[in-house]
Design brief:
mainly beta, Pectate Lyase C-like, 6-stranded parallel β-sheet, 4 helices, 22 strands, rod-shaped, disordered N terminus
């Protein structure tokens, strides 16, 4: 009996081999699949597992191998899938809100109609994934790889995508409003009809990316590299663009209303038709940029380089430009009504047909520029440099050119009526056929200027310098010349009636065939002047110097002849060495 009991006891004793066998079984089982547990559930998961429609909230699947698995309509809210492998898995209608998928491999996965609200996908791999109608609001995608991913009709509002790699990804009809994309990589990304309003893209790389009809209003692009990027018809209203590179970018038709563009490079960018109303551009370059038909009304541009820029047909109404380089820029047909320009360089610029009504351009350098057919009514160009500029056939009524440099400028056929050109330098300028009626040219320099057929009715030329000026055919009727210098001026065949010449120097002037009827000449120097065939009828002459003048064939009425004769007798008129007409010779009493 005792032996039997002993034998029975020994049969229940475990041997060392039993532990080895148990360990081997566990290893085999673990190689076949992972075990996932929570309080109520124990399941076996592995690649190609079907977890569709499972309720797995709060489950721990960290590191699980679930590649090519089906998780459609599963509830994995608050679950842990960190470092899990879900390559090419199918997630349709899956709930992963507040789940942790940190460093999870979802490359090539399909996420359709999923919820990942506040999910943690930081440093996950979503390369080539297909994300459609998925909610990723406030999710964490920091450092996540979304290379070549497709994001369609999805919501990533307020998501964290700092440092994420979205190169070559496609984002369509989706929202990233308020998302953090600082230092993200979006090279060659295609984003269309998306909402990126108030998005932080600071430090991001968007080289050669395409954004079409995308809302980026209020977004932050500070330090972003957008070289060669396309923003066609995008909305960047109130965007913050600071130290941003936009070289050769395409912003055609883009809205940049009230945008802040600071220390940025938009060299050779395409901004045709862009809306830059009320924008602020500071310390930036738009060298060679295309801004044709752009709207810059009320824009403020300072310390910027716009040389070689195309602003043809642009709207610059009431814009303010200061310390601007616009050398060689094209402003043809632009509307610059009320524009203010300070310390601007427009040398060689093309403003053909531009509208500059009431523009304030005092002191600017616009030398060598073309303002042909320009409308500058009421414009202020005091002390501006317009030397060598082309201003013919322009409208400058009531404009101000006081102290301006217009040497060699071409103003032929222009309307300069009622302009203020006091002390302006018009030396060698072309004013042929110009209208200068009622203009003020006090102290102006017109030395060597061509004024053929120009009209000066009721103009002021006091102390003006018209030495060597060509005034053939000019209308000087009813004009008052006081202290005017007209030495060697050419007034041949002119009709000058009812004009007043006081303290005028006409020495060596060409006055052949001129009509001076009804004129008044007081303290006038006509030394060496040629008055051959001139008409002086009913002329009032006092203290006139006709020394060495040519008065041959001069036509005078008896009143004028008597006045010259009596003046010569009493020393009021100097005829020393003068060549006299026959009528005058007959009346002069030999001294």
């Amino acid at each position: 009996m005792r032996k039997a009991m002993i034998g029975r006891t020994n049969s229940r004793r475990k041997t060392p081999i039993d532990g080895v066998i148990l360990l081997f079984i566990c290893i085999v089982l673990s190689s076949l699949g992972a075990y996932a547990t929570d309080v109520n559930t124990t399941i076996d998961v592995h690649n190609q597992t079907n977890l569709s429609y499972k309720i797995l909230t709060g489950i721990n699947l960290g590191g699980a191998h679930l590649s090519y698995s089906d998780l459609s309509y599963a509830n994995l809210a608050n679950s842990n899938l960190s470092r899990a492998l879900l390559k090419s898995s199918r997630l349709v209608g899956t709930n992963l809100s507040r789940a942790s998928l940190r460093e999870t491999d979802l490359s090539g996965a399909e996420l359709i109609g999923c919820e990942l609200i506040e999910a943690n996908l930081s440093y996950a791999d979503l390369k080539r994934s297909h994300i459609n109608k998925t909610i990723l609001q406030r999710s964490n995608l920091t450092g996540t790889a979304l290379v070549a991913a497709e994001i369609i009709n999805s919501d990533l509002g307020s998501a964290a995508l700092a440092g994420a790699d979205l190169s070559r990804c496609s984002i369509v009809n989706s929202t990233l409003q308020g998302a953090k994309l600082c230092n993200a990589n979006l090279v060659l990304a295609i984003i269309s009809n998306a909402n990126l309003a108030k998005t932080d893209l600071s430090g991001s790389i968007l080289r050669d990316a395409i954004l079409f009809e995308t809302n980026m209003s209020g977004s932050n692009l500070e330090g972003a590299d957008c070289t060669g990027m396309t923003f066609e018809k995008a909305d960047l209203t109130k965007a913050y663009v600071n130290k941003t590179i936009l070289q050769r970018s395409n912003l055609t038709g883009t809205a940049l209303v009230a945008a802040e563009i600071i220390d940025s490079d938009l060299g050779f960018a395409a901004l045709a038709g862009a809306d830059l109303r009320r924008c602020n551009i500071v310390n930036s370059t738009l060298l060679g940029a295309k801004l044709s038909n752009a709207n810059l009304a009320f824009a403020i541009i300072s310390n910027a380089n716009l040389s070689g820029t195309d602003l043809s047909g642009a709207n610059l109404k009431d814009a303010k430009l200061s310390e601007i380089n616009m050398h060689g820029s094209n402003l043809s047909g632009a509307d610059c009504t009320g524009m203010i320009m300070e310390d601007a360089d427009l040398r060689g610029a093309d403003l053909t047909g531009a509208r500059l009504v009431n523009a304030d351009m005092n002191g600017i350098d616009i030398s060598g520029a073309s303002l042909v057919n320009a409308n500058m009514q009421g414009a202020r160009l005091n002390y501006a440099n317009l030397s060598g500029s082309y201003l013919y056939n322009g409208v400058f009524t009531r404009a101000e050119f006081s102290g301006a440099d217009l040497r060699g400028a071409d103003l032929g056929g222009s309307d300069l009526a009622r302009t203020r050109m006091m002390w302006a330098d018009l030396g060698e300028a072309n004013l042929n056929d110009a209208n200068l009626d009622y203009s003020d040219l006090t102290g102006a320099n017109l030395t060597g200027a061509s004024l053929q057929r120009a009209s000066y009715t009721n103009s002021i030329l006091e102390r003006a310098n018209l030495n060597r000026a060509d005034l053939k055919g000019a209308n000087l009727s009813d004009i008052k010349l006081d202290g005017t210098y007209m030495r060697e001026a050419d007034l041949r065949m002119n009709s000058i009636r009812d004009a007043v010449f006081i303290n005028v120097d006409l020495s060596k002037a060409k006055l052949q065939g001129v009509t001076l009827d009804e004129c008044r000449l007081v303290h006038v120097n006509l030394t060496g002047a040629d008055l051959t065939g001139a008409s002086l009828k009913n002329v009032d002459m006092r203290d006139v110097n006709l020394k060495s003048a040519n008065l041959a064939k001069m036509q005078c009425d008896s009143v004028t002849l008597d006045q010259i004769a009596s003046g010569s007798a009493n020393g009021d008129i100097n005829l020393d060495g003068a060549i006299l007409s026959d009528d005058l010779s007959a009346r002069i009493v030999p001294q």
